[in-house]
Amino acid sequence: MFEIKAKDNRGRVGVLKTQHGKVMTPALMPVIHPRKQTIDVKKYGADIVITNAYLIYKDPKLKQKALDEGLHKLIDFQGPVMTDSGSFQLSVYGDVDIGNTEVIDFQEQIGSDIGTSLDIPTAPYVDKEEARKDMEITIKRAQEAIEYRNNKNYNLKLNSVVQGSTFPDLRSECADRLTSLNADLYPIGAVVPLMEGYDYKNLVDVVMASVKNLPDNKPRHLMGAGHPMVFALCVAMGCDLFDSAAYILYAEDDRLLTTTGTIKLENLHEMPCSCEVCSKYTPDELRKLPKKERVELIAAHNLHVSFAELRRIRQAIYEGTLMELVELRCRAHPALLDAVRELGNYSEDLEKYDPSVKKSAFFYTGPESLKRATVTRHLEKLRNQPKKKDLIILGGGRKPYSKYYQGRLGRFHTLTGSQEQVNPEEADFMVLDIPFGLTPLDLDETYPLAQNVAPKILDDDSIEFLINTLAEFSEYYNQVLIHARPVREYGLDLPEYEHSHDIRFKKDDTRKIKAIANYQFQSDIGEQLFDGDLNIEKSKKTGKIRHIYDGEELIANMRASDANFVLSDEGAKRLHKNINYPNNRVVVDSSVEEFARDGKSVFSKFVVDIDSNIRAQDEVLITNSNDDLLAYGKVLLNPKEINDFNTGQAVKVRKGFK
Ligand code: GUN
Ligand code: ZN
After folding, report:
1. In angstroms, rounded to a whole number, what is the distance separating the alpha carbons of residues 257 and 263?
2. 224 lines ligand 1 (CB under 6 A)
3. Gap from CA of 245 to ligand 2 centroid (Å)
4. Residues 483-494: tens digit of each pLDDT
């Protein structure tokens, strides 16, 4: 029913399949009022809409029409339609006169594509007893709805709504228990008051606590989120669907949505975008129109802006620039800045979902960028690298660093350690820089270290980050020497130099390819992978390493875009021989062994085990349970996603071994 096409952080571009067609996600479902609707939302890019089954049920005329002619005819929309159950009315009016199974029956009878059980939206900041009590009812009703639907063989797909108020532990528990019910979609409920109160920081905690326990193969809907200002942030946390009554509610109040906030028509001097409405009318002309006409035009603008933002978000996911967009959007309001800073506390979780290589460069937009998954992963990988005896710190040079520092003689001062004479052969050379903290010279052309841009003048957070990173890594070495330049240039507050040496950095391709292999495969594999009579072939045009041979035999190609290795048959065999099971491996069921050997893609369903350190876009080995090497290829999803999905590709196989 759901398939992932592209990923960035927890964000995904996906396809949701329904009986009334496919929907590209992240998607916005305009709320259709069954009685009052006058706007044709399809015209503005809506592929799916949401309406309220309870409002239809309550109105005898609508109810009859929906039962006779169907929901799609009633609201005049031929694409997928989701229905809500009346829970929101329950939360506002305290009661609804429909039962849980009754509302399921009704949604099925009127032909809804996706229905909802009667969850209880618990307000934020209630006491925990109450939140738990409501949550138990919500879970019980979700279970009842699914069992009822299954027994009756209904076509209706079902939402199970995550509740739990503002208690992250309750949200996590609710998500976990709903997961075992195997619902079709997982909305996150009762967040409207948080958004109305600009409490985006708590929104982050609520959403992150929920998604971490939801299955990755089901779409998630952030209920009642319809302001384009928050879409990017929420997509980065793993939300796939939004619904908007905002487009019409704001229009009725003469307010125009933009990606940076809301503007009242009375304050408008210039139209805010270049949509049909904004191109055709001036603010004065719009103000003079009769109310009904004006509302429709503003609603049209609001829809246009919302769909344009979702297109931009999907593009950012394909490019790998979603966090740049999130950080940009979160500068629109201080409360959103709090939210993106809060999201920084979830970097380790986001890292698990973030692809290991991306097509775009990393742009530093502010101190929040230092908490991105890409930085967290780099430092974690660096911690796990084999280390030489001493560490030499450089700073302030031009990129590519290895070229800039090649042969340069420098005076280095002892920062920590024994003050012995340093042998450059037994030292790691790293540049102290933003955004990655430390860039080993041998890795300076490898993603993400080569592809990044940061300002020349450092802010205080960046300086603190550099000092902390340096302090941490100093502990892994016998002696740390530092060049005067970073100290001077960054104004680092470091201890007095005590001793100095002259040291020259020398480029060495063999050392470099081994270092890249260690970094890429997260194992001390460089020596064994590149053992033998090495022949390093470079591009005549760019001078960059392209192919590595042992004698005549190709071991690996270096991809030009990110300087990561793509293995050959021999390279895969060496990796397999020298890295222990189950590292770097995707283990498949014996039933698909021959497909893998034939070079066909591996599907998630047939993966029986996978190294938990693997990330989307990694180059991996494919084996059977006896650890026979069947093939090698590129992983498309992370281990949790592969585990959760029962359909779709897990590994694009590059080549199989017959
Ligand atoms: N619409 C906005 N929030 C909610 C919620 O928590 N539950 C349901 N069913 N609908 C909503
Ligand atoms: Zn406009």
Report:
1. 7
2. yes
3. 17
4. 877 677 777 766
